[in-house]
Amino acid sequence: MGDRRLIFQTMESGVIKSYIWTFINRFLHYFLILTFALSYLSADIDTLFLVHIVCGVLFGAGVILRVIWGFIGTKHSRFWDFNYRGILEYLTSILGNKKHYIGHNPASSVAIILMLGFGFLVVFSGLLQYGAEQNSGIFAPLFFTYSYFYMGDDLHEFFANCLLFIVAIHFCGSLIDKFWSKGDAIDSMLNGYKRTQKDESVSLNPAQKAIFAFFLLFLFALFLYLLYPKNILLRSSAQDFFTQDSNKTAFGEYKQECGSCHIAYAPFLLPKSAWDSMMSDLENHFGDDASLEEETHARIAAFLEKYASDVVDTKFTQQKESQQIAITKTPYWEIAHRKLNPKIFTTKAIKSKANCQTCHKDAESGIFAKNAVEYFKLKSLRENL
């Protein structure tokens, strides 16, 4: 990253090559491409969910660093050097004799602002949804206000597709520039040089070099931190709710009495009417007598009703009139497991649909987060059917 003010005489008389895009510009450019691509491609692959969220956070960090560089970077990297005016004129001349720009042309200037804006929206909506649906990360408390974010997944996908669309247009424009207009936009993002009439080269000053070094260290440290299971950005808060002081005693009694035969299913998996129906007929609890002493029965029933799905606002919220006491017959369960072969629940390892803990490490918490599923165990069970 020393002085790169090298001038190369080209075959065109009076035209030289100036060093316009420093390594930090090109590094951030390809870092954003790589992290967004990995995050987007892994979005619908359950076994790669960790890749999706880690790359998503790294992409968000890259967006922030690019915005910072847009204020303190070299001349043509700064936002006030962007050319926004004349975009219509530029687009109409794209297949003709278009004007040559040293820095960003009007189309790429607008595209960069849109990509950074949608990049922020993609990451922010993803973190919100990660908290609201997975009870994880910095927005984990939103898990219990799910009705406000039930469209979060759709918005996250919409923003991601908008960003992909802008990226695709930007890429197509670069191809037109290279192969039709014989421009050097793509080449300049590989080697940093663009053709100019006079020397327009830029170089990093000592402060910018130090900032770039900090950027690299920050991204590397962030990557390592994201791999730490209890990092604040991605960690699960699955155990926090029922271990709070106000819930601890009642939950402990419920877990002792009901958890002695099966896992103590989270109360918010069923509505009040279903818990009432279940607790009123414990003598015939799925073929067993699960009767409790009167006082214990009353306390546990009150606890279950207090945190039922129609009281606690989570992704499991159901219609109040439902009296379906089998969690495995609820709409959420059926939708979540619709792609599985029913025979898998009769295997020796699982035995029953009710044994959620076989594949879900957080089953007892009631969160059922994607990153808590034993996907490799599930894959093995599928292969042995």
TrEMBL record:
GO MF annotations in UniProt: electron transfer activity; heme binding
Transmembrane segments: 20-43, 49-69, 107-128, 134-151, 158-176, 210-228
Domain Cytochrome b561 bacterial/Ni-hydrogenase, residue spans: 21-192
SUPFAM superfamilies in the cross-refs: Transmembrane di-heme cytochromes
Topological category with respect to the lipid bilayer: Multi-pass membrane protein
Keywords: Cell membrane, Membrane, Transmembrane, Transmembrane helix
GO CC list: plasma membrane
Keyword Ribosomal protein: no
InterPro entries in the record: Cyt_b561_bac/Ni-Hgenase (IPR011577), Di-haem_cyt_TM (IPR016174), Dihaem_cytochrome-c (IPR018588), Hydrogenase_cytochrome (IPR051542)
GO biological process: respiratory electron transport chain
Source organism superkingdom: Bacteria
Gene3D superfamilies, per the entry: Transmembrane di-heme cytochromes, Chain C (1.20.950.20)
Location within or outside the cell: Cell membrane
The protein's name in its UniProt record: Cytochrome B
Organism name: Helicobacter ganmani
